[in-house]
UniProtKB/TrEMBL annotation:
InterPro entries: Bact_Sporulation_Assoc, SpoIID/LytB, SpoIID/LytB_N. This is SpoIID/LytB domain-containing protein. Residues 135-226 form the Sporulation stage II protein D amidase enhancer LytB N-terminal domain. Pfam families: SpoIID (PF08486). It comes from Heliobacterium chlorum.
Amino acid sequence: MAQTKRWGLHWLLMALFSLIITSGIVTPAEARELPLLRVLLAQQTSADVRVISGTYQWFDEETNGIIEDAGQKTWTASAVGAVINLAKDNKALAKSFNGPLLLKAVGSGENILEVNGKKYRGSLRVYHLRSQGTNSLALINVIDMESYLYGVVGMEIGSGAPEEAIKAQALASRTYALQQRDRRDSFGYYYDVQATQSSQVYQGIAGETPRVTQLVNATRGQVVTYDGKLIEAVFHSNSGGQTEDARYVWNSDVPYLRGVLAPEDKYAEEMKGSAALAYHWRKTITARQLANQTLSLTGKDPGDVKSLHIAEMSPSGRVTRLEVMGTKGTISIDKAKVRQLLDTPSTKFTISGSGASGADLQVLSYGSSGVTKTTVLTTGSYQLKSSGLAVLTATATAISSGGTSILAGSSSSADEFIIDGYGFGHGVGMSQWGAMGLAKAGKKYNDIIEHYYNQDRRDNRLRIVGDWGI
């Protein structure tokens, strides 16, 4: 995440996998023909930059003029008021610049620069953020798409993941980056993606391995389209057994981001240790902690919390609304803030404890779309319809063809709540652990893409095309 759609496995897998084999890097001659990407590395008041290898020149993009050759010097770019100052080996240049400035790779060799101690391929744009009312600089790595992926794919899914899963990740990451580039460019953004989980985790050369580079090259230029357009190929760590419709997370209903069963997510448990927690986790929160976090998040004081109630759930079992019930009233927490309130890896969970009030009944109904299974709460009144389930009132009565029955609920005082959950991340799009499980079972990367982004429909609306979709 992709915005906060990006929950990659980089923190979980780098310690697990270390397989390395021979690879090849895209040469500068090839790179000139590849799509370029503007990656926001950081926003800060100054940056130290130096050339590691290759030939670079400083350009003033406002005047389109050359400032000077960068050489093997150490450069410092600083935001001073509304201008950018450049210093070479701690000696300031006589002129200040409005910018943007571009430290451009102009050589035919391997061009590598270092920004604040981290090495990157490509060029560096320094953009003053005065238009945003801040005295700071945006540091943007301008890099060809494939070199960008070398520093992304292994950080997201792990450099030792099964080959077909890495290829699937390469397609998802490439497609996502290009789709974001097109979208942001249409709005006049000064960057395309961020180097963090807000987009995709990008570590430059530090994130590269020969194995990942080889597998990225094996999918060179391949992207995923739906009805001829690049998809927003979001992904996450682990769906906990079933991915989610985008409409239940971001209110955007698109046909290629619909939920699918993902039993292969349990592959995480085969890794044991912390990896297994991506699939099944548990945490405890006290009533006092919950009260404090509710006040901090909403500005409303629930008083002494007596009950934590799952008010609404999606069909896949993810919580879309919580109710914190306290001595000063009931506070509703919508889906956008559920994880933030409880600090949980996902919203796919149940709650137990003396004050828990959750959803633990399954209702089956039959309609035009076939059999529908819906998880319902132990409080509330429901009527079965051909289209599914409709909530009628807040009383504890269930109405069906067999008559009326009273449902038992609980709302007693509680000292703590046990949250038992599954999955890691928003749950939309491709599950990375599920992709690894599918690859381990013999599925190819195109099968993985078809499964997560087209529900295995094989209707030719979703396609993998080459040449970056251009």
